[in-house]
Write a structure and sequence with these properties.
Elements (H helix, E strand, L loop, with lengths): L2 H4 E12 L2 E12 L3 E5 L6 H9 L6 E6 L2 E2 L10 E4 L11 H11 L4 H14 L15 H13 L5 E5 L7 H18 L2 E6 L2 H7 L2 E6 L2 E6 L1 H6 L4 H6 L4 E11 L2 E6 L4 E4 L10 E6 L5 E3 L10 E13 L3 E8 L4 E7 L15 E7 L4 E4 L7
Parallel strand pairs: 3-8, 3-9, 6-7, 7-8
Antiparallel strand pairs: 1-2, 1-4, 4-5, 9-10, 11-12, 11-14, 12-13, 14-20, 15-19, 16-17, 16-19, 17-18
Helix pairs in contact: 3-4, 3-5, 4-5
Bound molecules: adenosine-5'-diphosphate and magnesium ion.
């Protein structure tokens, strides 16, 4: 198989504008055959627009959408072998569950017996047997969601587009559907392009995650890559990193790279040997990688970043506790600690207490300061 046939959908330098508004800009992304790819981004970042371009409901002003390595611009939606599960299900309210699911097959004028058989199989697959004669208003949110899924799957598309399909479900049902969707995809071998603004959902479900911000692709990779090695400030922040320091690159040493904040504080990182000296960068660290101590923490082998400060906030979050510490340059450093590791914590940490925050140099994330992008 050559490289292009491994891709089922590809966007090449796509630009999509609505009037003056640029919804997607110079957007390139290749979706592999059979993968579960998630588009992750905040509201308004262009996720639905991207799905509509793939489905053929919109055409780009610039660039190309390829399906099976062929330019799809002349292909109307119904010839693309791509189906969509819409954000608000878009079920036909006046049709029963059976007729909703059968609709696409009826349009194709398949024999009635064949339609009945296929609808029955798919309703079983989404665990809805016995609900054939109900109308959408007689269904729960989760059931509506399953009908929408069945209606798209019954047409056996090569690609299924799912636009925030779990957004309207409560937490428990949502988690259950996440697992079921994953299983369904494995069973059917269909390529899924799934849209969410929820980073945890993206991590749980996907083979790869594409992070999108203001119509641009920020980063694409496995969930682990996106989480552990964000390439940009935006991706880091979206994936839960809360502490960012503006620094300059001072020197590369065998123990890591030394940076300095504007206030002259040294910070260390281990993953930035390729950064030129004096380069402006952002050094970041996740709240759960920072430790909070009363006394000066001791280095044990590798470089430790240490900052002295004052405790200004302590919030109980159930399984975890979140602390905020104001360090000497006035910046807040957020620390998050699991409550199961409480034994190690001195009791009675109160607001105003003098404390230290510290993290290992290996936990520092470094990326170019906003505006410049290095990949
Ligand atoms: P998302 O799905 O990530 O929330 P969308 O793709 O729906 O984002 O929208 C991206 C941007 O394009 C938004 O700013 C939105 O307001 C704008 N937009 C989307 N559809 C249209 C349209 N038909 N006309 C004008 N602007 C639109
Ligand atoms: Mg949307």
């Amino acid at each position: 198989m050559d490289a292009s046939s491994e891709c089922i959908v590809e966007l090449r330098n796509v630009c999509k504008r609505y009037g003056e508004h640029v919804a997607l800009e110079d957007f390139s992304l290749a979706v592999r055959r059979g993968e579960f790819l998630t588009l992750l981004g905040p509201s308004g970042s262009g996720k639905t627009t991207l799905l509509r371009l793939v489905a053929g409901f919109e055409l780009p002003q610039v660039g190309q959408v390829l399906i099976n390595a062929r330019d799809a611009s002349a292909l109307p939606p119904y010839h693309r072998n791509v189906n969509t599960v819409f954000q608000h299900y878009a079920l036909f309210p006046h049709l029963t569950v059976f007729r909703n699911v059968a609709f696409g097959l009826e349009q194709k004028k398949l024999p009635q017996a064949e339609i009945r058989r296929r609808v029955r199989v798919i309703l079983e697959m989404v665990e809805l047997p016995g609900k054939e004669d109900r109308y959408p208003h007689q269904l729960s949110g989760g059931e509506k969601q399953r009908v929408a899924l069945a209606r798209a799957l019954v047409l056996e598309p090569a690609v299924l587009l799912l636009d925030e399909p779990l957004g309207a479900l409560d937490q428990k049902l949502r988690q259950q559907m996440q697992v079921e969707l994953k299983r369904l995809r494995e069973r059917l071998g269909i390529t899924f392009i799934f849209v969410t603004h929820d980073q945890e959902e993206a991590l749980v479900m996907s083979d790869r995650v594409a992070v999108i911000n203001r119509g641009r692709l920020e980063q694409v990779g496995t969930g682990e890559e996106i989480y552990e090695r964000p390439h940009t400030h935006f991706v880091a922040e979206f994936m839960g990193v809360e502490n960012f320091f503006e620094v300059n690159c001072i020197a590369h040493t065998p123990e890591g790279t030394r940076f300095e904040t504007a206030a002259g504080h040294s910070l260390w990182a281990c993953n930035s040997a390729d950064l030129p000296q004096h380069a402006h960068a952002t050094l970041a660290v996740r709240p759960e990688c920072v430790r909070l101590t009363r006394g000066l923490p001791r280095e044990n082998g590798s470089r430790l970043n240490v900052m002295k400060g004052e405790l200004v906030e302590s919030i109980y979050e159930g399984g975890r506790r979140r602390w905020a510490v104001r360090v000497s340059n006035g910046q807040r450093v957020v620390v998050r600690e699991s409550n199961t590791s409480r034994e190690s914590r001195p009791n009675g940490e109160a607001r105003g207490a003098k404390v230290y925050v510290s993290w290992d140099a290996t936990k520092s994330l470094v990326f170019p300061r906003d505006g410049s992008v290095a990949r």
